[in-house]
Amino acid sequence: MKNTALTHIHEQLGAKMVPFAGYNMPVQYEGINIEHETVRNGVGVFDVSHMGEFLIEGEKALELIQKVTSNDASKLAIGDAQYSCLPNKTGGIVDDLIVYRVKEFTYLLVVNASNIEKDWSWIAENNTMNAEMKNISEGYSLLAIQGPKAVEAMQTLTSEDLSAIKFYTFKVGDFAGIENVIISATGYTGSGGFEIYCKNSEVEQVWNKVFEAGKSFGIKPIGLAARDTLRLEMGYCLYGNDINDTTSPLEAGLGWITKFTKDFTNSEALKQQKETGVTKKLVAFELTEKGIPRQHYTIVDAEGATIGEVTSGTMSPSLKKGIGLGYVKTAFSKRDTEIFIQVRKKAIPAKIVRLPFYKG
Amino acid sequence: MSIPAELKYTKDHEWVRVEGDIATVGITSFAQSELGDIVYVDVDTVDETVNKDEVFGSVEAVKTVSDLFMPLSGEVIEFNDGLEDEPEKVNSDPYGEGWMIKIAISDNAELDGLLSADDYKALIEA
């Protein structure tokens, strides 16, 4: 089991630690509901240093990225970030990721912790143009400082104007007394804020200064459990739950990051799928009666026939009702369609809704 | 971790208060703390006779769902309606307002199979 550079701090804070993607990670500190609420209305900090980071460099870097990712990375100016995915050759998804253009010929790819080795081999296998690749995952830490008060609470820590960093852009600047930190206006919560990339040797200082600066804003550490409820209220896909090696980006509602303006892995087959239409779709639903959907619960129609499966589900801490994502046959994917979630012996009525669940 | 001496316990982290032929059942402070914020207690066996170790309902935390098992055989005669609107009482007062069901005990001999507070303490500290 690997630790992050901050594991000892989480343990001191009394976090409940769980194994996740090979790392010993804080799942909860004070309680999931209070942590969730802190990010929705204040500011909270996640240690997500388990995430993987690859540098792709040199004149061939863009060519490699364009080949392996579905979104169009040629649109990225220096300082831009882009959500994308790595399609496989059989119609599914190797991983979803964020692509950062750091310099003219330097890109940073941020991938899921559970997929670091798989992604690395996949990209290396496709690197026929010999772009330079470096896996810097082990040496880098990532803090997500999220919530509507993040900008105000963190401004004293940097000479960069935080309010000027637009969503999905970033600056490389000073932060908490450390130089060359990536300050990125990204996150997985839907409540705004930043993700801070720095070296493992620097992260403890950053963490401590973030908590000092945030003290008067009621800043709290936030665990992975609240990270999941926050992302699910926004309908953000979680790899391994909502997308995997067998789900197509088009089925998953990721058509907006699947750009047929260029060629990429499996793009011909995906283009074909777009033209003929998908047979199942990832939908968002909320229960209209009491109950909580969970991953792998069956989705049925009014007659009890199976029409799909739940891929993520929870009680929404913000909305106080059961919400979920799941794949259903395309005929059942329209908004307001009534479906039923098989919760133990009962089929609980639910309706298809538009994302996000949480509208702020 | 609170483990009242006057109650009986099960290895499934439930407590039992026996008063005559009636047993009141809930989950222990240890169990609620492991589950985290409880958001729903679902009991659909009221008025049914359920055997020991069978499922009488489930308790849902934000992230997980756990079955609730009968500590004793008997008829489920009451569900704590207060939990419908305030399931968080299981977290804040697991041995009091967070009680879950009352059972009309059908076999008093089964009482011998329950754990004492000391036995339960040893179980969770093991």
UniProtKB/TrEMBL annotation, chain A:
Pfam hit, one: GCV_T
Name of the top EC class for this enzyme: transferase
Catalysed reactions, as listed in the record: N(6)-[(R)-S(8)-aminomethyldihydrolipoyl]-L-lysyl-[protein] + (6S)-5,6,7,8-tetrahydrofolate = N(6)-[(R)-dihydrolipoyl]-L-lysyl-[protein] + (6R)-5,10-methylene-5,6,7,8-tetrahydrofolate + NH4(+)
Keyword set, alphabetical order: Aminotransferase, Methyltransferase, Transferase
Enzyme Commission number(s): 2.1.2.10
GO BP: glycine decarboxylation via glycine cleavage system; methylation
Domain of life: Bacteria
Residues that hold substrate according to the record: E195
GO terms, molecular function: aminomethyltransferase activity; methyltransferase activity; transaminase activity
Cross-referenced NCBIfam families: gcvT (TIGR00528), PRK00389.1 (NF001567)
Oligomeric and partner information: The glycine cleavage system is composed of four proteins: P, T, L and H.
PANTHER family: AMINOMETHYLTRANSFERASE, AMINOMETHYLTRANSFERASE, MITOCHONDRIAL
The protein, known as: Aminomethyltransferase
Organism: Lutibacter agarilyticus
From TrEMBL, chain B:
Source lineage: Bacteria, Pseudomonadati, Bacteroidota, Flavobacteriia, Flavobacteriales
Biological role stated in the UniProt entry: The glycine cleavage system catalyzes the degradation of glycine. The H protein shuttles the methylamine group of glycine from the P protein to the T protein.
Cofactor field: (R)-lipoate
Pfam families given in the database record: GCV_H
NCBIfam families attached to this UniProt entry: gcvH, PRK01202.1
Domain Lipoyl-binding intervals: 22-104
Subunit structure: The glycine cleavage system is composed of four proteins: P, T, L and H.
Source organism of the structure: Lutibacter agarilyticus
Note on cofactor: Binds 1 lipoyl cofactor covalently.
UniProt keyword Nucleus, yes or no: no
Record GO biological process: glycine decarboxylation via glycine cleavage system; protein lipoylation
InterPro entries in the record: 2-oxoA_DH_lipoyl-BS (IPR003016), Biotin_lipoyl (IPR000089), GCV_H (IPR002930), GCV_H/Fam206 (IPR033753), GCV_H_sub (IPR017453), Single_hybrid_motif (IPR011053)
Residues in coiled coil: none
Keyword Transcription included in the entry's annotation: no
Record's protein name: Glycine cleavage system H protein
UniProt family annotation: Belongs to the GcvH family.
